[in-house]
Protein: SseB protein N-terminal domain-containing protein
Amino acid sequence: MTETPQTPLDRAWAAAADDGDAGMARYYDVLAGAELFLAIDPATLDGAAQTPVLFPVDGVKTALVFDTDWRIAEFMGDDAAHLTLSGRAVFAMFAGKGVQLGVNLGDAPSATILPAVAIDWAAEALRQPVEEEAGGAMILTRPIGATPDLLARIDAKLAGIGPALAEAWLCGAGEPDGALVLCLSLRLESAERAVVAALAETARFAGDARAAFDIAVLREHDARLAAARRVGLGFEIAAPPDTARQAPDRSLPPKLRRSP
Structure:
């Protein structure tokens, strides 16, 4: 029997049981960034507006989302109608509606029902502003206020961003309250908005009254990037895929493919 692979949401839910409030905040961060399959009424699939399937659970309307297509198929049937949305979009959709969210219901280790108050909290957290530093007067220092938990959260989010990012350095912002700023250098400048939005989620969920860190996107010629490299904590960034093909050696005969 093949063992069902665990998803990032499964692992975040398991960690949340051991890490209290910090673990739950990480779980909501992963859920916000996840691609989710929202069950909808099949009769509305081809209409102008799709209607989510809402089941009554303990007298409360409950929407259903799953983090893989095979999980929604197992629970709802192979022909289940669904929309594919980010977790952040799902939070925004149901905020203030008094609707619970059934997540991965069935046999998944992360199966749970999030109450309406949790949906409202997550949506509100995602609306909190995260400062994007742009001014030239920013002073960078060593990130004295960085905790191992925060570093692990940032590292996990960076791992999911992919090759659009070239460098990431967590620095102090030169303020007495220990404020932090995450300095980024991009390989793909057109991805700036998506990269900042993804990291802003982590900043919001890792913070309390304010975001855990601000974000600065710096160009290669920017003196602040050189400063970040000197004083910041750097994160290992995945190398971009090598798409260049090696030129054939013309001194050798061509290779022949055998017929099957």
